[in-house]
């Protein structure tokens, strides 16, 4: 019998991306934290648990020794929705196999990888279940498997789901793992679970495989946040749920009192938090229960931090696709939900909530508190050429009505065993690939760009932008938060630092900017010419005539008050 107290365990995080769960850096998902907590609860010492990300192993070959030498090696990862990632690169199937081959001890794999893997982490693929050469594949909760495996002397386990009582212990006990993340403490956001599972059954979605939602108590969630906060975490996202409005209710109707207790409780245990965002919000809930939803949204916008996004799973505006795939919300209903979130959450720090939705001249120079996002999935059953037109028409209605949406996520379906899409697979997505690419580009040009200018106009200040990489003589970075904007600033600056940035221009899903406030007596030519209204000639004059003590006459055509300081 292996003594848990002497057991050495290595956890490798290959990252996750699920419909209601995200864990690609700068995010850390719940899986490694809960698994580590389960191990501690089973008797394994914290000091005997080593955590690495897959990117660490790519960059530092010496850390593979921790995989090789561990008595128990656990891999967590899996992608059930494809995306584009900046902060990290999810593990590919071949890399996961190599981990299993390297490990000399017992090997366990779990997380959404249990639903299946493809040839790569991308859309328009058929996914197949594969143990990737591990001793054990947890077909339910990997944290429960880890607990039972250790209790059983590494001799096996029965697949099962953990209880909320177990989770309350494991979530707090596993908080220590974040201290081993390479982004800790300054550039790490903790994904938080309020519930999992979904009462609805969309054809392509893996979230219903977790069953109907089982809500965690306010004390359990705030207790976990307090434990993470004590370990240095300052950034949190309530992302692990299908519908934040359903929290504490009957699974359908909102419970505004429960959301108030949750959000105010988070603020109480983490008074100096820097990010509090969310992810999924069901537009059907808003339409069916508008007044309760309005009250709940007002609470979220009161306690969250600016730039928050409530992702709406419209998936398709085509009635035929909606019918064939059990989709919940019509285009008209989704538009009404967009209106309501704009009216209750679309105000900016420094303004009154009654100002929502706020944009244009006179608006505060910060991102709105809470806006909707739109998720669209292609390759679903019933998709046809008209589908693309239905989606574009819906997005144009949002734009033309003067509403705001924070981002539009367009992707192709991944077909997993156990979903209705398994029979159709990725055939439709593959057949429509050319149409999909042209349509996506049209949306980016005609909708994304003007919408981004509305949401984040020139002069908008983005605090605490973390600088991540260099490209083409510029430095790129993001704020911590849900669906953060990619920001480019002139020059190659020291990576890893943070700065406030004022927006100077817009792409489709990214912006350009300059440090804020910009010291006119120190600014480079590239920084000066990035400001609208300042060309090469004016910038040259500013540089030649330094130092300046007054700003008014520097560039009469430029919004200098939004950018300059003469300190």
Automatic annotation (TrEMBL):
PROSITE patterns, alphabetized: RADICAL_SAM (PS51918)
Gene3D superfamilies tied to this protein: Photosystem II 12 kDa extrinsic protein (1.10.150.320), tm_1862 like domain (3.80.30.20)
MF annotations from Gene Ontology: catalytic activity; iron-sulfur cluster binding
Radical SAM core domain boundaries: 184-450
InterPro entries found in the cross-reference section: Elp3/MiaA/NifB-like_rSAM, rSAM, rSAM_horseshoe, rSAM_sf
Highest taxon above the source species: Archaea
PANTHER family: PTHR43324, RADICAL SAM CORE DOMAIN-CONTAINING PROTEIN
Name of the protein in question: Radical SAM protein
Species: Halosegnis rubeus
């Amino acid at each position: 019998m292996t003594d848990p107290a002497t057991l050495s365990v290595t956890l490798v995080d290959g990252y996750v991306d699920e419909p209601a769960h995200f864990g690609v850096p700068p995010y850390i998902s719940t899986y490694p934290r809960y698994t580590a907590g389960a191990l501690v609860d089973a008797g394994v010492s914290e000091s005997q648990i080593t955590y690495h990300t897959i990117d660490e192993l790519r960059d530092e070959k010496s850390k593979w020794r921790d995989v090789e030498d561990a008595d128990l090696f656990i891999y967590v990862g899996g992608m059930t929705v494809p995306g584009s990632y900046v902060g990290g690169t999810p593990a590919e199937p071949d890399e996961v196999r190599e981990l299993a081959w390297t490990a000399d001890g017992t090997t366990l794999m779990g997380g959404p990888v249990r639903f299946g893997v493809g040839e790569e982490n991308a859309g328009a693929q058929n996914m197949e279940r594969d143990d990737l050469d591990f001793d054990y594949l947890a077909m339910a909760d990997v944290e429960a498997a880890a607990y039972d495996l250790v209790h059983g002397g590494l001799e096996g386990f029965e697949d099962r789901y953990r209880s909320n009582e177990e989770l309350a212990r494991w979530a707090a006990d596993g908080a220590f793992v974040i201290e081993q993340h390479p982004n800790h403490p300054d550039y790490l956001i903790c994904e938080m679970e309020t519930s999992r599972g979904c009462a609805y059954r969309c054809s392509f979605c893996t979230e219903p495989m977790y069953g109907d939602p089982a809500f965690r108590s306010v004390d359990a969630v705030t207790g976990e946040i307090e434990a993470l906060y004590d370990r240095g975490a300052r950034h949190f996202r309530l992302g692990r749920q299908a519908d934040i409005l359903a929290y504490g209710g009957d699974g359908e109707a909102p419970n505004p009192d429960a959301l108030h207790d949750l959000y105010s409780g988070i603020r109480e245990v983490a008074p100096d938090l820097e990010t509090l965002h969310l992810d999924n919000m069901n537009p059907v809930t808003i339409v069916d229960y508008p007044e309760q939803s309005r009250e709940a949204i007002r609470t979220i916008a009161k306690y969250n931090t600016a730039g928050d996004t409530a992702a709406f799973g419209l998936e398709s505006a085509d009635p035929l696709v909606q019918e064939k795939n059990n989709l919940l919300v019509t285009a008209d209903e989704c538009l009404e939900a967009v209106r309501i979130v704009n009216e209750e959450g679309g105000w900016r720090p420094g303004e009154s909530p009654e100002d929502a939705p706020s944009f244009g001249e006179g608006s505060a120079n910060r991102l709105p508190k809470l806006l909707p996002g739109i998720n669209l999935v292609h390759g679903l059953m019933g998709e046809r050429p008209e589908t693309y037109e239905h989606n574009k028409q819906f997005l144009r209605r949002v734009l033309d009505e003067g509403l705001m949406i924070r981002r539009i996520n367009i992707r192709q379906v991944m077909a997993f065993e156990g979903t209705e899409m398994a029979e159709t697979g990725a055939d439709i997505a593959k057949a429509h690939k050319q149409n999909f690419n042209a349509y996506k580009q049209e949306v980016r040009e005609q909708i994304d760009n003007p919408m981004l200018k509305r949401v984040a106009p020139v002069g908008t200040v983005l605090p605490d932008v973390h600088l991540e990489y260099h490209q083409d003589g510029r430095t790129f970075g993001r704020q911590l938060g849900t669906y953060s904007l990619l920001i480019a600033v002139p020059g190659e600056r020291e990576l890893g630092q943070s700065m406030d940035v004022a927006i100077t221009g817009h792409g489709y899903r990214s912006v350009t900017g300059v440090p804020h406030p910009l010291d006119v007596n120190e600014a480079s030519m590239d920084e000066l010419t990035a400001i609208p209204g300042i060309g090469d000639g004016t910038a040259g004059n500013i540089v030649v005539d330094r130092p300046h003590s007054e700003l008014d006459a520097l560039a009469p055509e430029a919004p200098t008050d939004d950018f300059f300081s003469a300190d």
